[in-house]
Amino acid sequence: MMDWDRVRIFHAVAGAGSFTRAADRLGLSQSAISRQIGALEATIGTPLFHRHARGLILTEQGDVLLEAANEVAKRLAAVETTLGEVRDEAAGHLRVNTTVGLGTVWLTSHLFDFRELYPDITLSLVVTDSDVDLAMRQADVAIRLHRPTQPDLVQRRLMTVHTHIYGGHTYLERHGIPETVGDLDAHALIAYGDQWQPPVPSLNWILAAGRDEDEVHGRAPALTVNNVYGMLRACECGLGLASLPDYLGGTNARLRRILPTLEGPSFTAYFVYPEELRASKRVSVFRDFLLRKVAEQPVW
Questions:
Q1: Are domains 4-75 and 163-258 of this chain identical in fold?
Q2: Which residue in 107, 217, 223, 257 has its CB near the most CB atoms, within 10 A?
Q3: What is the pLDDT of residues 270-282, one digit of tens each?
Q4: How do residues 121-156 score in pLDDT, each as one tens digit?
Q5: Which CATH number fits domain 163-258: 3.30.450.40, 3.40.190.10, 3.90.950.20, 3.90.870.10?
């Protein structure tokens, strides 16, 4: 009999196209992923991937297993929804996925209110800057900073996020406040680390702000961090200036907006969940709660 955990890992590898990317998404080592796939192939007696230097391609048998895994995940989700809903009450467990910055600062600041309203719903918060697979129930719902491309997901626009440049008071007292975009050349800048994929491609716009499009090199950052919360904390501690979403910087008393008329690229956040959870009461009350909290704040 096939082990469901191994099938879940297989599904993640198939979606990622490589052991390395799947390991990042699942929080496992590449060797552990490889062992689990090898054990699954040994169980069913056939290879599931063609392995080559540029990545992995599903074999014919792999395609069959992937289709079956998708169907099983959908059926399990439907059963879990049925079992988890007691009459028409909002109850049960809800696994929520979003990015590190949005999850650790904005979302957690509102979860006390949600628990006060719905004490029979327990929560797991999964924060990662790479998408988890909702079809395989790595989470029930997600807040994505891009329009989802995964099929069979219900999506609801939450808000449009704006970005500006922020600096900590201690840094600005020591180094002065930039008055023009060209002044950024003389300042220490904090950026999202370039060997990691940022949650939105335009996050590092501060490095090229005011530069001509034909200029090959942007500004060099003084510090790179591999998540937005780390960038926020570095900015608070006076390590430099950073381009941050307004939901992080605009409500922070330790930061000041720099060059306020200079705005970076905006992006839209979506609340998404699998089609089979459309009738879930706990999902609908959480969605409506988020929409109310968004409407209450002037930073969007």
A1: no
A2: 107
A3: 999 998 888 899 9
A4: 999 999 988 888 887 788 999 999 988 877 789 999
A5: 3.40.190.10
